[in-house]
């Protein structure tokens, strides 16, 4: 497994960076191939991801091409996490980790994404009810994680090990101060805030946040 994986990405959205975090955590060789926004829905990129979005990967070590960040993360764990650094093998922990990844993919990603769309990109501007809907969903979901961490007394979503599911949340969570302006979440959801701080402090996450800042600065 010595050839570099190609990660198809573009600088601004959080989803490709979720995959970069797993690549960094597992010290997997990779190169980033930037796909311009106007090219994601066209050939040749749609031959890699029929849904026309980044991320996608190509792994020359196995011949696998994959799309959807959650599926890519599970592939990287199954193929490269031989010491189970970021995953459990025992049941139910193994599947509870999958549950939280699904919460990220079906809840956090889409709702945070819609909040961002209606605040920053939608052409019409009289959008109070749409913005309220999605910012309330952000607060609800953050509250779910806060309560879960409080109830279990654990450091992470599944027990006391940081898994790929915890890591999948961190890029979107970085946007909370911008998406829900004026929300003192450090005080209102302290278990969530401490969990987020633990994840952000990891060297792999720091590296990816620095790479993203660099990629978006020009
Ligand atoms: N569910 C997908 C979402 C991917 C996604 O929305 N990617 C954004 C960038 S963060 C994108 O490609 N946007 C361009 C577009 O939709 O045209 C995943 O997690 O991989």
From TrEMBL:
The keyword Transferase applies. GO terms for molecular function: transferase activity. Pfam families: GST_C_3 (PF14497), GST_N_3 (PF13417). Keywords: Transferase. InterPro entries: Glutathione-S-Trfase_C-like, Glutathione-S-Trfase_C_sf, Glutathione_S-Trfase, Glutathione_S-Trfase_N, GST_C, Thioredoxin-like_sf. CDD domains: GST_N_Ure2p_like. The keyword Transferase applies. Residues 90-218 form the GST C-terminal domain. Residues 3-84 form the GST N-terminal domain. Belongs to the GST superfamily. This is Glutathione S-transferase.
């Amino acid at each position: 497994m010595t050839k570099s994986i190609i990660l198809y990405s573009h600088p601004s959205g959080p989803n490709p960076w979720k995959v970069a975090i797993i690549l960094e955590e597992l010290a997997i060789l990779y190169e980033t191939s930037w796909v311009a926004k106007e090219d994601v829905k066209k050939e040749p990129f749609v031959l890699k991801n029929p849904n026309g979005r980044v991320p996608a990967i190509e792994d020359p070590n196995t011949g696998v091409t994959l799309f959807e960040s959650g599926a890519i993360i599970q592939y990287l764990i199954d193929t490269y996490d031989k010491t189970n650094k970021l995953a459990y093998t025992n049941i139910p922990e193994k599947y509870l980790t999958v549950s939280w990844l699904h919460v990220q993919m079906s809840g956090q990603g889409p709702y945070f994404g819609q909040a961002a769309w209606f605040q920053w990109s939608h052409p019409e501007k009289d959008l109070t009810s749409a913005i309220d809907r999605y910012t309330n969903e952000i607060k609800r979901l953050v509250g779910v994680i806060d309560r879960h961490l409080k109830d279990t007394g654990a450091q992470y979503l599944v027990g006391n090990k940081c898994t790929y599911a915890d890591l999948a949340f961190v890029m979107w969570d970085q946007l909370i101060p911008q998406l829900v302006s004026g929300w003192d979440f450090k005080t209102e959801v302290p278990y969530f805030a401490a969990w987020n701080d633990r994840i952000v402090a990891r060297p792999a996450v720091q590296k990816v946040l620095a790479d993203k800042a660099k990629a978006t600065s020009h």
